[in-house]
């Protein structure tokens, strides 16, 4: 369902033989695998945590262009009304870049999320 309407034209990959349940089952098994559980804390650090900005981000090769971060979009808008189309594009892109929620390595936070994913 999407927007309350049944979606009927989804093309599944050939390996699942047009079986949506098999598609979901295989992806669920992959997401619940040990390798994903072990990698989740590192992913959290990259996407939401202390490796999103600064030296840690550079060291992890995880840097975003400054024009697509949440803080720079507002500054760009305020600095120049002549660049409205560029600013709008930056706002759209910045929606895809999550805000940093953790500013340090925190094994406890990562472990809580990993344990939640085991359920």
What structural keywords apply?
single chain, 119 residues, mainly alpha, extended
Please tell me about this protein's structure.
This protein is an all-alpha fold. The chain has one domain (14-118). The chain contains six helices and no strands. The chain has helices at residues 20-31, 34-47, 54-59, 70-79, 84-94, 107-118. α2 crosses α6 (107-118) and α4 (70-79) runs antiparallel to α5 (84-94). The two termini are 25 Å apart.
Return the string of H and E elements: HHHHHH
Helical proportion? 40-55%
Distance between the termini: 25 Å
Provide the number of structural domains. 1
Please state the overall shape, judged from the principal axes of the Cα atoms. Answer: extended
Number of strand elements? 0
What's the alpha carbon Rg, rounded to whole Å?
19 Å
Structural class: mainly alpha
Count the DSSP helices.
Answer: 6
Low-confidence stretches: none
Q: Report the mean per-residue pLDDT as an integer.
A: 74
């Amino acid at each position: 369902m999407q927007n309350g309407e049944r979606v009927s034209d989804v093309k599944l990959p050939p390996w699942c033989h047009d079986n949506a349940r098999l598609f979901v089952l295989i992806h669920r098994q992959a997401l619940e695998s040990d390798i994903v559980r072990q990698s989740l804390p590192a992913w959290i650090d990259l996407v939401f945590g202390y490796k999103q900005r600064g030296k840690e981000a550079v060291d992890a090769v995880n840097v975003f262009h400054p024009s697509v971060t949440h803080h720079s979009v507002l500054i760009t808008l305020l600095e120049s009304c002549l660049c409205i189309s560029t600013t709008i594009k930056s706002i759209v892109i910045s929606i895809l870049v999550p805000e940093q929620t953790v500013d340090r390595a925190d094994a406890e936070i990562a472990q809580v999320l990993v344990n939640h994913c085991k359920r």
